[in-house]
Design brief:
- The structure holds 2 protein chains of 2 kinds.
- Chain A is α+β, with helices and mostly antiparallel strands.
- Chain A has a domain of 157 residues: Glutamine Phosphoribosylpyrophosphate, subunit 1, domain 1 (4-Layer Sandwich), CATH 3.60.20.10.
- Chain A contains 6 helices and 13 strands.
- In chain A, strands 1, 4, 5, 6, 7, 8, 9 and 10 form an 8-stranded antiparallel beta sheet that branches. A 5-stranded antiparallel beta sheet of chain A has the order 11-2-3-12-13, with helices on one face.
- In chain A, α4 packs antiparallel against α5.
- Chain A is globular, with a radius of gyration of 20 Å.
- Chain B starts with 19 loop residues before the first helix and ends in an 18-residue tail after the last helix.
- By secondary structure, chain B is of the alpha+beta class.
- Chain B is built from 7 helices and 10 strands.
- Classes of the chains: A alpha+beta, B alpha+beta.
- Chains A and B meet through α3 of A and α2 and α3 of B.
- Chain B: Belongs to the peptidase T1A family.
- Chain B: Its main location: cytoplasm.
- Chain B: The proteasome is a multicatalytic proteinase complex which is characterized by its ability to cleave peptides with Arg, Phe, Tyr, Leu, and Glu adjacent to the leaving group at neutral or slightly basic pH.
- Chain B: Keywords: Cytoplasm, Nucleus, Proteasome.
């Protein structure tokens, strides 16, 4: 009885303490920013199984309802669980058929509640989520972590992106970026991540959401440059090493 | 309404396909003191007549704030109304907590109607004996709904419930086509005029009525007595015997302030067609 309860993710008062989960198949950084017409979000398509890059066509950005995009890093199966949950939420929202709809702010708040409640049960959804959208001309971009920390900002990043992308965004982001400049800025961040994050793969999607709707680009690769002289003769300064 | 053998409990149909207990519950609404509501594109005004059962007591609270963007006026068993208001407040605050956004009034009204319907289909329950005029905002603008004890709800441009509400309804029917474009002030004036209609000649004073407003950018709030009295005075609608068809001037002429303001604060004699349950 106890073990069945524990398996279903419910922790009763007398149950043995459950360890936090270990993530198995994970996605790496998501980077997003506000631009003139809406939100731009980028994520690569890799699903790592530990140190192996096991899956290379994982879509980590999905549209939610009419007004929002959700990007996730972390455990892919938890992301899929969230998508199922949100699908039902949006379905019920649409069933009211009353001209009201859940916007990005509402979804962000809802996700915060979900993540925080799971964390309190010691059964977290192992994701860092980026929620961006536009509703009635208002742009919204927010983040929720696996422990329920949430905030709103003009540019966000998860995982390694926090360390590598955000400094770039802090320097180079400004209000009313054009679409082209926004994409260039995101690609700059993704390129740095590609060079420096070992779980990154060179196959990414950039998603755009505006008042008109959502577009998620086809997967494409960034141009990289490896012709540095230091790579020609790597052991020049350290004879005997490899 | 005649007493008959099919009205003992709510789960018994009559041969004519009626649920008498539900209909009797709607009678209770008709016995309560009047409540009116009217809306424009951007604002909704609720008003009600307050009758205290004696000069010594305070009057019943009939208008409740449910959230910053929703308020309700009740007629009928005020105890039932209080309980339902608490339910509505609870639903609003829970929604706000999860979504950090106001609950669209249309959805609250459906939840309320479903709750009322349950009581019409359980042998161990009775229908709520209160009619609710729900005023609120959502993405599409301002709305006014009426929730019945039967579990039905309707959206209205303007409506009146409770005793002598027919007089108010007649007044509103004549003017409702203009309400959409009304200014906030005109809407309140029409509300006060409608309330006056239900008083059947009695002087309209702020001590015997309550007015509340909600609008885009204006949270739901009940106007205080002083403000209401000033409005009554400035609109000159205190209790002159001019017929309701006379188009009132909205120009604030001061005028018969003496008649309205100086009148005694004791309010109307009690027991005037007010059912005991309403007190």
């Amino acid at each position: 009885m106890e073990s069945i309860q524990a398996k279903q993710g419910l922790v009763g008062p007398n149950d043995p303490i459950q360890r936090t989960q270990l993530p198995y198949v994970t996605g790496t950084s998501v980077v997003a920013l506000k631009y003139k017409d809406g939100i731009l979000m980028a994520a690569d398509m890799g699903g790592s199984y530990g140190s192996t890059i096991r899956y290379k066509s994982v879509e980590r950005i999905k549209p939610i309802g009419k007004h929002s995009l959700l990007g996730a890093s972390g455990e892919i199966s938890d992301f899929q669980e969230l998508l199922r949950n949100l699908d039902e939420l949006i379905l019920y929202d649409n069933m009211w058929d009353d001209g009201n709809s859940l916007g990005p702010k509402e979804l962000h708040s809802y996700l915060t509640r979900v993540m925080y409640n799971r964390r309190n049960k010691f059964d977290p959804l192992w994701n860092s989520l980026v929620l961006g959208g536009v509703k009635n001309g208002q742009k919204y971009l927010g983040m929720v972590s696996m422990i329920g920390v949430n905030f709103e900002d003009s540019h966000v990043a998860t995982g390694f992106g926090n360390h590598l992308a955000r400094p770039i965004l802090r320097d180079e982001w400004h209000e009313n970026l054009s679409y082209e400049d926004g994409v260039k800025l995101l690609e700059k961040c993704m390129r740095v991540l590609l060079y420096r994050d070992r779980s990154a793969v060179n196959k990414l999607q950039i998603a755009k959401i505006t008042e008109e709707g959502t577009t998620i680009s086809q997967p494409y690769a960034l141009k990289t440059f490896w012709g540095f002289t230091a790579f020609q003769n790597p052991t020049a300064g350290a004879e005997g090493s490899w | 309404m005649f007493r008959n053998q099919y009205d003992t409990d709510v789960t018994t149909w009559s041969p004519a396909g009626r649920l008498f207990q539900v209909e009797y519950a709607m009678e209770a609404v008709k016995q309560g003191s009047a409540a009116i509501g009217l809306r424009s594109k951007t604002h909704v005004v609720l008003g009600c007549v307050n009758k205290a059962n004696s000069e010594l007591s305070s009057h019943q609270k009939k208008i409740f704030k449910v959230d910053d963007h929703i308020g309700v006026a009740i007629a009928g068993l005020t105890a039932d109304g209080r309980v339902l208001s608490r339910y509505m407040r609870s639903e609003c605050i829970n929604y706000s907590y999860t979504y950090e956004s106001p609950l669209p009034v249309g959805r609250l009204v459906v939840q309320l109607a479903d709750k009322a319907q349950v009581c019409t289909q359980r042998s161990w329950k009775r229908p709520y004996g209160v009619g609710l005029l729900v005023a609120g905002l959502d993405e599409k603008g301002a709305h006014l709904y009426y929730n019945c004890p039967s579990g039905n709800y309707f959206e209205y441009q303007a409506f009146a419930i409770g005793s002598r509400s027919q007089a108010a309804k007649t007044y509103l029917e004549r003017r409702f086509e203009n309400f959409s474009e009304s200014t906030r002030e005109d809407l309140i004036k029409d509300a006060l005029m409608a309330i006056r209609e239900t008083l059947q000649g009695e002087t309209l004073k702020s001590s015997i009525c309550t007015v509340a407003v909600v609008g885009a950018g204006e949270p739901f709030h009940i106007l205080d007595q002083e403000t209401v009295q000033k409005l009554i005075d400035s609109f000159e609608i205190a209790g002159t015997e001019e017929g309701p068809a006379a188009a009132p001037d909205s120009a604030a002429e001061g005028g018969s302030a003496a008649e309205g303001g100086a009148a005694s604060e004791q309010g109307a004699p009690a027991g005037e067609g007010v059912a005991p349950m309403d007190i």
